[in-house]
Amino acid sequence: MSDTPELSADSPRRNFLGQMAAGAMGLAALAVPGIVGLVSFFNPWRQKSEAGQSIRVTTLDALPADGSPRRFPVIADRGDAWNRLLQVPVGAVYVRRMGESKAEAIHVVCPHAGCYVEYDSKQGDFYCPCHAARFELDGQLKDPDSSPSPRPLDTLACEIKHGNEVWVAFVNYQTGTSEKKEA
Ligand code: FES
């Protein structure tokens, strides 16, 4: 005797269970990324890591004693709900030594349209190669009445930790506006 009739009698039930399992897996596949996204969105640590996270950029010893600026990359973890990149460049800053135990940091991005400003050691200032805006070493506009830049360069909070390390609270700001607003 063959058992084929038994199998065929059970097939609709098996198909039903298979469809239910596939449906449940499909729902799980949709729900998990959604939950991860919500948790990530409302996670204050994540938001802090992207705006104002204090990052070690250099040491006081690496800065000229005369207060001329040096440019440093800002290296940090970056991520969103789906990906997390560890220790990648997220921007750059100019840092100046302002004495035995103090430093100042300025964002390299020009507030006009986002080009990177350059340090002009001959003129002792910053200039933007895109539309020729010029800035004092403290970031102030050199020619506020005619500058293409709508505001000074963006200063960043800077502190010395462990006696010698320069840490910068790194934030990106919007360009093309006279107000300093986080990007
Ligand atoms: S982007 Fe710097 S002056 Fe235009």
DSSP helical segment count: 2
CATH fold-level name of the largest domain: Rieske Iron-sulfur Protein
Number of strands: 10
Could you say what the CATH architecture of the largest domain is? Answer: 3-layer Sandwich
Strand proportion:
25-35%
* Largest sheet geometry: 4 strands, antiparallel
Structure description:
The chain contains two helices and ten strands; from the N terminus they run ααββββββββββ. Strands 2-3-4-8 form a four-stranded antiparallel sheet, covered by helices on one side. It is α+β, with helices and mostly antiparallel strands. Helices cover about 25% and strands about 30% of the residues. The protein is elongated. It has helices at about 5-40, 45-50, and strands at about 55-60, 70-80, 85-95, 105, 120, 125, 135, 155, 160, 165-170. The chain folds into two domains: about 1-40; about 45-170, Rieske Iron-sulfur Protein, CATH 2.102.10. The chain binds FE2/S2 (inorganic) cluster (FES). FE2/S2 (inorganic) cluster binds next to loops.
